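Q: How do we represent a protein-ligand complex in a form that can be generated token by token?
A: Start from the inputs.
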Amino acid sequence: MKAVIPVAGAGTRLRPHTYTQPKTLIPVAGKPIIGIIIDQLKAVGVDDFVFIIGHLGEKIRDYITNSYPDLNCEFVHQYERLGIGHAIWSAREELKDADEIMIILGDSIIDGDFKALLEDPHSMIMIKKVSTPGTFGVVETDDQGIITNIVEKPKIPKSNLAVVGVYKIKEVEKLINAIQYNIDHELKTLDEYQLTDAIMAIINDGVRIGTMRVDNWFDCGKKEILLNTNRMLLEKATYPTDDFPAYFNSIIIHPVSIGTNCDIQNSVIGPHVTISDNVVIHSAIIKNSIIGDYAKIEDIVLDDSIVGNDAAVKGFNQSLNIGDNTEIDFS
Ligand code: UTP
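Then emit the structure tokens for the protein with uridine 5'-triphosphate bound:
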């Protein structure tokens, strides 16, 4: 089994963060998204990884090789961002001898049964019922959960079952050939070579692909979902930290994740805050937020915020002169 993780996208919906930081390296609950995905896969015995890199790809390579020095992994460049199907095609040489592959999008954190997915003898796709199927890849299934149709972001969805971004494919050669055909004939959907189109082609060719429902799915492509993911993961036992030093004159409201070498004074931190390493926080109140490495935060109240690496923010407070019987609401 080879895990294939496309992380070449530009992450435009998460700008300005993704101008300098690849989406998959943004920390949630104390760990970059890609770290959470690698740990999940290693836990169920996946040993071989192919990362498809592009935008800021060297940063991703550095993180993985430094944090997982023993990981058996290859890095492949996708030189043009032409869609997820094209990303997988870019790794065709690395995949051609694999007996099966698991494709996982590098910005999706899935709370699902990966062990059962690996053990199932058939090709499988993880899915979840959603209220806005038109914004995702959507599958229709028969009464045994076998996919009969898969469409990328349909205008009129015929089901509410969305593809969450995890695909176990046993017919690797057929899949690569289907993507190759679409590229050769410039068959795009929404101007990209879609993985879902190639999957539909192999289904039409007789391949049987089952479905597996997941409990939770965090597509971390947007700020609100990223903060929501941070909150949900910090509620789980494995993610928060509680072994940090006593910070001067400060209150920590759990759950939080605080990195090393932070200087926190006269502040209230939490709940649901991820603070990376080497961060300075003085006289601040922070909740529901993600703070990057070497950020400097002073004299401010932050809620539902993402502060990037090396960013500085301070002094958002008011000087007021308020008379008796006045009511002011800044919310
Ligand atoms: P997305 O379309 O959600 O990510 O792709 P994006 O393109 O980076 O984000 P936006 O839409 O501009 O905000 C899902 C995953 O597939 C990868 C992305 O890096 C992400 O991990 N991807 C996408 C590629 O590797 N190559 C592509 O051409 C497109």
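The chain has two domains: 2-233, 240-314. The first strand starts at residue 2 and ends at 7.
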